[in-house]
Specification:
The complex is a heterodimer. Chain A is mainly beta. Chain A contains no helices and eleven strands. Chain A has strands at residues 4-7, 10-13, 19-25, 31-38, 42-49, 56-57, 64-68, 74-78, 87-94, 104-105, 109-113. Helix content of chain B is 0%, strand content 56%. In chain B, a hairpin with a 2-residue loop joins strand 6 (55-58) and strand 7. The chains are: A mainly beta, B mainly beta.
Chain lengths: 114, 109
């Protein structure tokens, strides 16, 4: 059981380049999330998708776009990468996105923007 | 953004010692979760607390939700090297979980 799978594991970009981070879950979960984790800042929510076909902004959405391609997949796109977007990115999923639910996380993508 | 504070930020102790880490806010939460994160991995859920004053135990870990549902604590008894990791509290408010900055725990053999 793979759970939540993120690709790539590591990525280095130059300022202004674009890229898409991929995330897929095999637990038939309705809700999916993208977080970024920076030293001393904890995990901050970028975007989430409560269900297939819907997406909403989280705490730090600027500079990012998302696509809920189907129930399994939720991608995060950086159109023009900036050094401030250097971070570790985590995708997560939960069954319905309601209180008390367990979040299942992928193992992260370490992104460096030079 | 909810103001959420975890303390201490870093903690290094000897194997066998006891410790407590705290998660505090001025906001009231409907529930709160604790996660542990190991290097190179995503966080893994330890517990969810829902009721004010609730205490849950997970082996040597004891979790408490404050009476007013604004704060929580995690107590570890007789810490072991396997307890090393980043402990994150995540209160639920509105329709999402907010994560604290975490307490980085190192247990020295």
């Amino acid at each position: 059981n793979a759970g939540v799978t993120q690709t790539p594991k590591f990525q280095v970009l130059k300022t202004g380049q674009s890229m898409t981070l991929q995330c897929a879950q095999d637990m038939n979960h309705n809700s999916m999330y993208w977080y970024r984790q920076d030293p001393g800042m904890g995990l901050r929510l970028i975007y989430y998708s409560a269900s297939e076909g819907t997406t909403d902004k989280g705490e730090v959405p600027n500079g990012y776009n998302v696509s809920r391609l189907n129930k399994r997949e939720f991608s995060l796109r950086l159109e023009s990468a900036a050094p401030s977007q250097t971070s570790v990115y985590f995708c997560a999923s939960s069954e319905t996105g309601t209180t008390n639910e367990k979040l299942f996380f992928g193992s992260g993508t370490q992104l460096s923007v030079l | 953004t909810q103001l959420l504070e975890q303390s201490p930020q870093f903690l290094s102790i000897q194997e066998g010692e006891n410790l407590t880490v705290y998660c505090n806010s001025s906001s009231v939460f409907s529930s709160l979760q604790w996660y542990r994160q190991e290097p190179g991995e995503g966080p893994v859920l330890l517990v969810t607390v829902v009721t004010g004053g609730e205490v849950k135990k997970l082996k040597r870990l004891t979790f408490q939700f404050g009476d007013a549902r604004k704060d929580s604590s995690l107590h570890i008894t007789a810490a072991q090297p396997g307890d090393t990791g980043l402990y994150l509290c995540a209160p639920y408010t509105g329709n999402q979980f907010y994560f604290g900055t975490g307490t980085s725990l190192t247990v020295i053999p």
